Amino acid sequence: MNNTLPKTAIIILAAGASKRMGSIKQLLPWKHTTLIGHAIEQALASIADEVFVVLGSNYKLVSKEIETYHITMLKNKNWSHGMGSSISCAIEFMVNRSKYFDAVLITLVDQPLIDMDYFNNLIKRAVRYNIVASKYKNRVGVPAIFSTEYFAALRKLNRDIGAKELLSEHIKDVKGIDAFDKTQDIDSISTYELLYQQYGKTTF
Q1: Nearest 5°: CA angle at 15, between 11 and 130?
Q2: pTM of the full predicted structure?
Q3: Which of 24, 42, 51, 78 fits as disulfide partner to 71, beta carbons 3.0 to 4.6 Å?
Q4: Would you list the domain boundaries of the chain?
């Protein structure tokens, strides 16, 4: 890539059923909106060119919540097969609609500390690297940005491992960046309540 910023699509994965939560995770309150509304707003505020949101479980309820945003909503009929199928769904849509992007940035709906600045950092790093991923303790993961070189592989994903296997397979091509504590994800109601009390309350 040259020094021009890559034309980037952000793909927000939000298709899961969140059975352990006891409620629809995507619609849990966060600041002035919901977890999914917050993720969309941060993506739209970034320097990305377009935002795609992949839905699945509770499609009607969740889609109604976000219908006013300037995004492309996708329904993954195979959402129960896991995150890999949602990534594949988005890439398939882009290919079939002849939507061209230099890179796709994959992010999760349940990491509310990820913000527009972090998205921008990933996109800017993608000028020099084909894959830029977030550092965890002993691995790299999403949010991560992939150049077109990996679109075919992303399109083939169909298991709950999402992009993890692809990152592991091409680890030599991955530039890891420190996300500090921003990658905390909400996988239980107790984690949600803790993060909500610290960061998710509306402030005036």
Answers
A1: 25
A2: 0.95
A3: 51
A4: 8-199
